Amino acid sequence: MVTKGFEKCLYVFSMEKWEGLSAKLVEVAFSDVAAQSFKRDFFPNASECGLDKQGRIPIPQWLRDYINVEKETVIIGMMDRVEIWSKEGKDAYDNEQSGRNREETLARLAELGI
What we know:
Elements: E1 2-4, E2 10-12, H1 15-26, H2 33-42, E3 46-47, H3 61-66, E4 73-77, E5 82-86, H4 87-97, H5 102-111
Antiparallel strand pairs: 1-2, 1-3, 2-5, 4-5
């Protein structure tokens, strides 16, 4: 399954992971406004994309448009999913994040014992 991710990238999930995520989110209370908003954006923007004969994932044009792919893409393994970025989008994200929140993020992860 491929869906819009955060930070103008795409998330690619295995069907097993997608079904597990769906099962967890279906249990969230209707009164949780933030969760309902997330579900309204996350699930309708998903597309089941199998592999073609050459082992590629044919991603619908509307999802490619979301990340503004011009030429190159960047593919990142993120443990439970794969992220697909336009090269320009990933470079812009890296430049924006470079050092700005790094110390804060590392401190938060240290608190979690990671």
